[in-house]
Amino acid sequence: MEIFTTRPSPRLVGGPGALSQLADCVKEIGGSHVLIVTDLGIVSAGHVERATSRLSEAGIEFTVYDATHESPGESDIKAAAEFARGVEVDCIVGLGGGSSMDTAKGCNFLLTNGGAMSDYKGYALARSPMLPFIAVPTTAGTGSECQSYAVISRDGSHEKMACGDPKALAKFAILDPELTESMPQPVAILTALDALAHALETAVCTRRNAFSSAFSREAFLRIASSIEAVLTDSATLEDRGEMLLGAAFSGLAIENSMLGAAHASANPLTARFGLVHGKAVAIMLPHVMRVNDVDPEARDTYDHYGELLTRRGYADLPLIDWVEALLGIADLGSLDEAGVKAAAIPELAGDATKQWTGQFNPRAMTEEGFVLLYKQALESLTPSTT
Ligand SMILES: [Fe+2]
């Protein structure tokens, strides 16, 4: 038997209308004044009102912080914590996409332990207890609701710092597919592809184990059943629920293993060229899978997943071809169209080798390997045009 240690998971509360259980969750963890960390888009969608009306009915006080930004940086977290210090809260709710949840987690670090986010880069560096946290995702993709890490950009360099602590993990994650109906279609597409990448990278990474592999496989099946409907904007509430659960399972797989070279090569594209995370990951994913496909164990997993696709009637294609077909449907455009220049490849490759998660790719990635990978990604046409 392999050697591994599992990480805890939040209690999951799921199903259409699950948000109605928010007040009960807050009461169960002893909260009386909740800080809701969210953004203006979620306010406009009416989700904040839906959440706060339930808290009011239950006699629970709340304060809303709606100034969350996409890909939050150190200064964003500092601002959120300064706001939170001005109100006496005893519980934090992250309501929104990955950025709201990361901001909520980051705020919790600074509010309870002081200092700056860079002090917590790594794992388990917070000494004092943290406030109980409830994650309520309104997108289906990041899986942040099931992870003890806040991903915060370093001001200036845009380096992504993974700041993790078991105390930062949500006590509850409320998975209500009705909340994901308000996602703009471009967000739905990119978060779905990110969730797929999470399932596929965790499934083959060198940190995988029996526990994480079970989550990866279940995540893959849920995502495979619903992703085409999400990409073509024809998702039913059932599809949205499958995608939301798939994304959460992917998050649990990441929490209990690692990612791989698609994320390692995507992060520099985001930092240097501003590509949205899901887009950068999705574009790099099939190229990384072709590299990994020569690893016998990775290939076994890919073959197995491909057979599952056929057996369940989701697609009749080998796994990597199916991923490329999905990218064709998503019509993401090429790296070239996104403004990525071949001259930047050496710098991108240098940055990619420094990404922690790349070290767990099934095939070891050198700087030369990343150069080749970026070249392939830049030279390939978008799947929709081939
Ligand atoms: Fe991701």
Would you kindly provide a brief summary of this structure?
The chain is α/β, with parallel strands linked by helices and 386 residues long.
Describe the structure.
- The protein is of the alpha/beta class and 386 residues long.
- The chain has 2 domains: 11-179, Rossmann fold (3-Layer(aba) Sandwich), CATH 3.40.50; 184-385, Dehydroquinate synthase-like - alpha domain (Dehydroquinate synthase-like, alpha domain, Up-down Bundle).
- It contains 14 helices and 9 strands.
- It has helices at 22-28, 40-44, 47-57, 74-85, 98-113, 185-204, 210-231, 237-255, 261-273, 277-292, 296-311, 319-330, 345-353, 367-379, and strands at 11-14, 33-37, 61-65, 91-96, 122-123, 133-137, 149-153, 160-164, 172-175.
- The strands form 2 sheets. It has a 6-stranded parallel β-sheet, with helices on both faces.
- Helix 7 (210-231) runs antiparallel to helix 8, helix 9 crosses helix 13 (345-353) and helix 10 (277-292) runs antiparallel to helix 12.
- The model has no long low-confidence stretch (mean pLDDT 95).
- It binds fe (ii) ion (FE2).
- Fe (ii) ion (FE2) is lined by residues 194, 197-198, 263, 277, 281.
- Fe (ii) ion is lined by residues 194, 197-198, 263, 277, 281.
Which key terms come to mind for this protein?
386 residues; alpha/beta; Rossmann fold; Dehydroquinate synthase-like, alpha domain; 2 domains; six-stranded parallel β-sheet; three-stranded mixed β-sheet; 9 strands; globular; binds fe (ii) ion
